[in-house]
Write a structure and sequence with these properties.
The chain has 160 residues and is mainly alpha-helical. The protein has one domain. Helices cover 66% and strands 6% of the residues. It is built from five helices and three strands, in the order αββααβαα. It has helices at residues 2-24, 40-65, 72-92, 110-125, 132-151; strands spanning 30-32, 35-39, 97-98. It has a three-stranded mixed beta sheet with strand order 1-2-3. A hairpin with a 2-residue loop joins strand 1 (30-32) and strand 2 (35-39). Helix 1 packs across helix 2, helix 3 runs antiparallel to helix 4 (110-125) and helix 4 packs across helix 5. The longest helix is centred in the N-terminal third of the chain and has 26 residues, at 40-65.
Amino acid sequence: MRDNIEAARAIVQSRTDAYSAALWAEVPVIEGPIGTHVTFPGIVGAAIMGREAALAPVRDDVRRTAPSDLEVVAVEVLAAWFLDYNYFRFSFGQVPVALLFGADPVDVSPETGSRLAVAAAQFLCGYEEEDARKRAAATPLAALAIKESMWGSPLPEEWI
């Protein structure tokens, strides 16, 4: 298992910037009277909609570089988890995020960002939907599920 983790980390080191940039490019950035910001559902939606294409080079790397004693599927899943985690951490550091803990944009602290990134990576590693329309429709519920997972219980109504 340790070899699988190390192989995934090596691939992630070379792919994190491109993966995060590809997904971030799809996040709608809002310029408004309260300043530049994004929404949490926008961050989640970009991941849900763009993840498959952004992971394609990673899958190629795994198949090309994985020695025969590594479990290719395990390395792929681990690499995807690390990349998703890094994408969310990256996203939270760009601009304030609205619709996270209420309607107003907030700066996400490193601790909260890390907890949300773990919850998001866990959610995304278990989520697969072929139909793009269904993926898009699932975005608000996915954002809610990620926040509730991070919080550990149902959210206060003003956060929904």
